[in-house]
């Protein structure tokens, strides 16, 4: 086992995989923490949301992570995807991402509708608007989809975590003690 763990190529591959795994997990957890802790507050004018329903398919799937930039009402156009806080009916206190289908520039109101929905949403005003969708995080969305799947979680999180833990423990127990290595160096000299 020591021979395998001390193999130079194995160490390079292992350290690369470990670094990638830790980086992806840290970025994913950081994104989740920012979403939860920010309480929908913007950071430099941006907010991160996760799509919760299939109303915007095929554009956005459930679990997709999107970046929303605060926009002035005057910069919104019909056809833009916007995120807003619902105030009435089924939308009350829900964060919704839908496409703008009508605008009233004088009243500063919008009518939105999910791409997959047959009915339009209740009218919203500019005070409800969080902003316009500017980006869908492709890699993080893919990761979210995979992790939500039981097999994806097993192969992307559980097995790599167990493997890293096992190899770290094996590395710890196969390394010579500092005292032993100092004595071996003295004996050699």
How would you describe this structure to a colleague?
There is one protein chain. This protein has 5 helices and 7 strands, in the order ααβββββββααα. Strand 4 and strand 5 (109-113) form a beta hairpin. It has helices at residues 2-6, 8-37, 138-148, 150-174, 178-188; strands at 46-50, 65-69, 81-85, 95-104, 109-113, 124-125, 129-137. It has 189 residues and is of the alpha+beta class. The protein folds into 2 domains: 2-35 and 149-176, no CATH class; 42-141, Ribbon (Umud Fragment, subunit A), CATH 2.10.109.10. 43% of the residues lie in helices and 22% in strands.
Judging from the principal axes of the Cα atoms, what is the shape? elongated
Instruction: Return the average pLDDT rounded to an integer.
Output: 79
**What portion of residues belong to β-strands?**
15-25%
Annotated CATH topology of the largest domain: Umud Fragment, subunit A
How would you spell out the order of helices and strands?
HHEEEEEEEHHH
* Name of the CATH superfamily of the largest domain: Umud Fragment, subunit A
Chain-wise SSE layout:
Layout: H1 2-6, H2 8-37, E1 46-50, E2 65-69, E3 81-85, E4 95-104, E5 109-113, E6 124-125, E7 129-137, H3 138-148, H4 150-174, H5 178-188
Antiparallel strand pairs: 1-2, 2-7, 3-4, 3-7, 4-5, 5-6
Helix pairs in contact: 3-4
Label this structure with key terms.
elongated; alpha+beta; single chain; 189 residues
């Amino acid at each position: 086992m020591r021979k395998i763990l001390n193999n130079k190529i194995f160490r390079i591959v292992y350290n690369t995989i470990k670094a990638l795994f830790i980086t992806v997990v840290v970025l994913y957890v950081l994104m989740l923490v920012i979403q939860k802790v920010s309480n929908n507050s913007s950071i430099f004018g941006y907010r991160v949301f996760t799509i919760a329903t299939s109303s915007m398919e095929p554009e956005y799937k459930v679990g997709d992570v999107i970046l929303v930039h605060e926009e002035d009402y005057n910069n919104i156009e019909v056809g833009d995807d916007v995120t807003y806080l619902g105030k009435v009916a089924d939308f009350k206190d829900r964060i919704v991402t839908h496409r703008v289908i009508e605008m009233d520039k004088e009243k500063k109101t919008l009518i939105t509708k999910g791409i997959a929905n047959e009915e339009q949403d209740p009218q919203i005003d500019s005070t409800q608007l969080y902003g316009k969708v500017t980006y869908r995080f492709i890699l993080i969305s893919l990761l979210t989809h995979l992790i939500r799947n039981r097999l994806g979680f097993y192969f992307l999180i559980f097995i790599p975590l167990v493997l890293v833990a096992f190899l770290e423990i094996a590395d710890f127990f196969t390394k010579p003690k500092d005292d032993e290595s100092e004595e071996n160096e003295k004996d050699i000299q």
